[in-house]
Write a structure and sequence with these properties.
heterodimer; A: about 220 residues; alpha/beta; Rossmann fold; 6-stranded mixed sheet; 4-stranded antiparallel sheet; 7 helices; 10 strands; globular; B: about 375 residues; alpha+beta; 10-stranded mixed sheet; two-stranded antiparallel sheet; about 55% helix
């Protein structure tokens, strides 16, 4: 029997803009099995990134529960949530979001600085993560010395270096050319199949979504 | 400590901006050190003032003399240990810019009341034996290359005529607050010439220095001295040496207050400059802070990054300013009119104040950007367009 790793229960999200209340997600409920590769699709403003942020624990629902591995993360304090994120979630962003003053090695090492690992252990892990994404020879390069596809691969290495159970990716191929996008999708597929990572990916791109096992569509905050 | 590398790298991210800010802090620290040194130099006489010394001067004004005959009368007052006196001799040594205090003193008693001027017994004896002798402070001797046996020619102004004095001793200051720039000549020598050339100025004394046994009786003895000469043609005003020195300083108090104010004003201005730099830096990195927080870094880490960067910039600026202040103050001392300030050095308290101010700038400059960065929600950070 497959294990449910993420359970979204009646989640709604509203944003306040001055006196206006804008509803972004309406009563969303679904489960994600461990090892699933889920694509969230929908037009701009449909709430897919908001839903991803809620699952990743970087935003809080207005109502509802987000239970991940048995924990309702909506109830965690900011500090506990930060710790939880560092241990359970890897992040991949559309614009890579690498720190420009750090090398590829140092960028990938960042999440490990929050652990108790020794310097040599951190080094081993970073080298392994970068070799998985095929950038073992670019460790000392700064982001500006890498192509967009390579930057995104560094970002993927950073996402997996702590060995999280869940990887969330927000438009990971949105800023890449076709070949680089294909490489990134292949990597995500490998992470899912070989390393059994549960992946939630937001995308506009149907070919990217085709890599996923499950595709969910959002429209104006509702699952359709 | 693990994020120290990121703090250091962030500090150098905008090299020109960081360099200009460090330079600004350095200039502020240099200005602060110079202004504080001037203020300290002004007050150094106060630090040197002894609690057991009173100064008796003419009640109307310091510029009017007192009769020599007052010496024994003052000495007879209960509680007085010894009495000495002095006249402001002044004159010009070669050039008007060669300024150092030149005083005619009572050679027999001066070292009783001023133990801070250190002479060897042989020098003291040689000085006492020779009425045309003088002694000079070590700082002045060093400045003008005076040696024992040299003749110092002075062109008199207050006491007209050409004067020549043989150096019989070079006194050493007891401590840093002691003025080592003065020159002392025999009052007896001066009086002898005045008696011959300007008899009406004979036996004039500029002021009396009264050493008392018990400093707690200063007010009472001062009153007794002044009462003694009340209703005479030369009434006196007696006060502690500290009050007397303070009287001189108070004439310049507005300038000193302005300089004091200015020194802290500069610190305030540079605080705003660094604050602005840190706000710009933090604003530019809003998205990066969101990324770091997403990765699990807490608000404390973000605060540490901003605070650390601010401290690095302020500490570098503070240290650079301090290092540059030392030769600059030395240069000012060498180029200002000689003897204008007997003691003009960068005091430890000024160093402590300058460094603390620089670090305080770092702390205050990081408060607003830190507060803003940690209050920004992660999702808002990602949406931020700088």
């Amino acid at each position: 029997m497959e294990k449910i790793i993420i359970s979204i229960e009646n989640v709604s999200k509203e944003y306040k803009r001055d006196s206006l209340s804008i509803s972004v997600l309406n009563n969303i409920t679904f489960d994600v099995q461990e090892g699933d590769f889920l694509a969230l699709m929908g037009p701009s403003g449909s709430g897919k990134t908001t839903l991803l942020n809620l699952i990743a624990g970087i935003d809080q629902p207005t109502v509802g529960k987000i239970i991940i591995n048995g924990n309702d993360i909506a109830k965690l304090s900011a500090t506990s949530l930060a710790k939880w994120r560092s241990e359970n979630v890897g992040f991949i962003f559309q614009f890579y979001n690498l720190i420009p003053v750090l090398t590829a090695f140092e960028n990938v090492e960042l999440p490990l600085l929050l652990t108790k690992l020794s310097k040599s252990e951190r080094k081993k892990r970073v080298e392994l993560a970068l070799s998985i994404v095929g950038l073992g020879d670019r460790m000392d390069h700064y982001p500006k010395q890498l192509s967009g596809g390579q930057e995104q691969r560094v970002a993927i290495a950073r996402a997996v270096v702590t060995d999280p159970a869940i990887i969330v990716a927000d438009e990971p191929t949105g800023d890449l050319d076709k070949n680089s996008a294909a490489e990134v999708l292949t990597l995500l597929d490998r992470l899912n199949k070989e390393m059994k990572k549960t992946i939630i990916m937001v995308t506009h791109d149907p070919s990217a979504a085709s890599k996923a096992h499950i595709i969910k569509h959002l429209e104006k905050g509702d699952l359709v | 400590m693990k994020v120290l590398k990121l703090i250091i790298k962030n500090s150098g991210r905008h090299k020109l901006r960081s360099m200009l800010t460090i330079l600004g802090i350095s200039i502020a620290v240099i200005s602060f050190c110079i202004l504080r040194t001037v203020v300290t130099a002004w007050y150094v006489g106060l630090d040197a003032a002894a609690a057991n010394r009173l100064i008796t001067r003419q009640a109307v004004s310091f510029i009017f003399p007192l009769p020599y005959s007052y010496k024994e009368k003052i000495k007879s007052i209960d509680g007085v240990e010894s009495v000495s006196f002095a006249n402001w001799f002044q004159g010009v040594y070669k050039d008007k810019d060669n300024f150092f205090a030149r005083l005619a003193i009572d050679a027999e008693t001066v070292f009783d009341v001023y133990p801070e001027f250190k002479l060897t017994d042989a020098e003291k004896e040689a000085f006492l034996k020779d009425r045309s002798a003088c002694i000079v402070g070590a700082a002045t001797a060093k400045q003008y290359g005076f040696k024992v046996g040299d003749v110092v020619p002075i062109e008199g102004d207050i006491y007209p005529g050409r004067w020549e004095f043989v150096i019989r001793g070079i006194y050493q200051p007891r401590d840093k607050s002691t003025d080592a720039s003065q020159m002392f000549i025999h009052w007896a020598n001066l009086n002898e010439r005045m008696t011959k050339e300007f008899p009406q100025r004979a036996n004039d004394v500029g002021w009396y220095i009264v050493k008392i046994k018990d400093p707690s009786r200063a007010a009472e003895i001062s009153q007794k001295i002044d009462n003694l000469f009340a209703n005479s043609s030369a009434e006196t005003k007696t006060e502690t040496e500290r009050a007397f020195t303070q009287g001189f300083i108070s004439a310049s108090s507005a300038i000193i207050t302005a300089m004091n104010f200015l020194s802290f004003m500069i610190i305030g201005i540079i605080m705003l400059v660094l604050g602005n730099t840190m706000i710009m830096s933090a604003r530019e990195r809003t998205r990066e802070y969101a990324v770091l927080r997403t990765l699990g870094f807490t608000s404390y880490h973000i605060a540490g990054l901003i605070f650390g960067e601010s401290m690095i910039i302020s500490a570098l600026g503070g240290l650079t300013g301090l290092v540059l202040s030392i030769p600059m103050i030395k240069g000012i001392e060498e180029n200002m009119p000689k003897g204008f300030f007997p003691v003009f050095t960068l005091e430890p308290i000024t160093i402590v104040l300058a460094l603390s101010s620089a670090l305080m700038i770092g702390v205050f400059a990081s408060i607003f950007p830190t507060s803003r960065a940690i209050r920004t929600k992660i999702v808002d950070g990602f949406r931020f367009v700088g």
